[in-house]
Amino acid sequence: MDKQVFYNTLPVLASADIIVAGGGLSGCAAAIASARAGADTLLIESGGCLGGAATAGLVAPISSIRSNDGKHAFGGILQELLDAVTAKAKKYCASSIMPISSLHLYKYILLDKLKNSGANVFFHLFITDVVSDADGTIRYLVVSSKDGLKRIEGKIFIDTTGDGDVMGKSSADTIIGSEPHVLADIADTGLLKSHDKQTDIPEDDYAGKLQPVSLMMQFGGVDVKRATQYMNKKITYADFGITREEFANWPYTGTLGFEMDDSEYIPMPQGRVWLYPAIRDGVATINMSRVLNINACDPQAYSDAEVKAGLQLIAIIDFLLTFVPGFENAYFMESSSTLGIRESRRLVGDYVLRGREVICCQEFPDTIAHGSYIIDIHDPKGKRMAIGGEIKKPHYSIPYGCLVTKKVPNMATAGRSISADHVAMSATRIQGTAMLTGQAAGIAASMALAAGCTMSDVDVTVLQKKLTEAGVFLDLPDRD
Ligand SMILES: Cc1cc2nc3c(=O)[nH]c(=O)nc-3n(C[C@H](O)[C@H](O)[C@H](O)COP(=O)(O)OP(=O)(O)OC[C@H]3O[C@@H](n4cnc5c(N)ncnc54)[C@H](O)[C@@H]3O)c2cc1C
Q1: 3.40.50.970, 3.50.50.60, 3.40.30.10, 3.90.1140.10: which CATH number matches 3-179+343-469?
Q2: N or C: more exposed end of the chain, with fewer CB within 10 A?
């Protein structure tokens, strides 16, 4: 039987005018913005909580929340979330009032904001397929539920699955991994290193490569000050006061990123000790696992990566407790419940943001969001810590064309799957930016619904006005 004929027989489980696919930070911002604009909105999420990488993935820091000169908070739902978490954290969590302090609070504050906006949420539905008309218009999503396959119907769809699972099954053009020559394209920008001593842009043989995946975890009882002195450095055996022989006798030596070579450096999956202070004194978030060459849209690779990263975590926990000064009295607290994916499928949309446009902070008349994060390509080949460096102005701009494609008239995307090349996405993938593109996509969807137009034909000047009214900072040229 033809697949579509079969799908047409499936029961409709739910429907709404605007379907937001994926409840990470970008999806939450999109759904809240769309519902606040008065649109009937439903958010579909495969897991059981909101926040995606920020919560289930234990990615504590929300970066890119203001311009690098500190003059402009980027505002909007992003700022509302930070304010709400900070206020609640004072009362419920810890001595620290930093937004980083209470990542699990995000889940419930997002849920509260979502429900207050009027949007509905449906948990535990995994989007597996998309049915479209001949012109690319999406008719419905096919989801896998506890009760088998179902249909979710909508008029406009916002893909915030991070992996672009909706667009990947639609008529949209998409790409996975680095484009050929994308590093050569930034070679003359004078990109400065910020967290790697190597200052050259590597030769351009990265085509098709993806940033590695990682599992995050947290420790308590850490002497953070002592441990931090080893942060982001290549560590020799002597730095830890151990010998090669002692390291060679450690049970995990020879496996999972701890393979010894002839150098004096201790082998580690990330090549470095990498921790940052978290909830309260003595708590550190650890970002030290790294699995290379994983395309998270490939089910076998995705599962294999969970296995490899999970086994790496056992070894890293033991490594920290056995060798690293500052961890003598530390204890393992928790790890993320799902793999952290930095990069997977991206839209090739009406506009593709280039790395050099991020680095040089190109302005666009149809800007709908700003970002301030560095270019941060975790080395797909695992040889370096990262390829990247500072942008040249306080903030860069993201044009509306990065969220939409004429090939799918009733779809937008936001978050880490927007239409940006491999270099540009290493900055745009960051959580603050994901929320800002989400908010823009949500408002744009409500406008397209009201106007009966395609997502590509939304009046961007009006969208910019609505975003500004909603508290989003947009650095636009003065208009009459
Ligand atoms: C290890 C690591 C460290 C990072 N460090 C930082 C940092 O320091 N600062 C920072 O700002 N950012 C950081 N990032 C980047 C950032 O966390 C993510 O890029 C960002 O959170 C992406 O948000 P999103 O909403 O696009 O996607 P996600 O957060 O991935 O959300 C996608 C949601 O969609 C759901 N979903 C996926 N597929 C389906 C499907 N088929 N059906 C239904 N639901 C689906 C998922 O369950 C998830 O809830 C880091 C990322 C990683 C992996």
Answers
A1: 3.50.50.60
A2: C
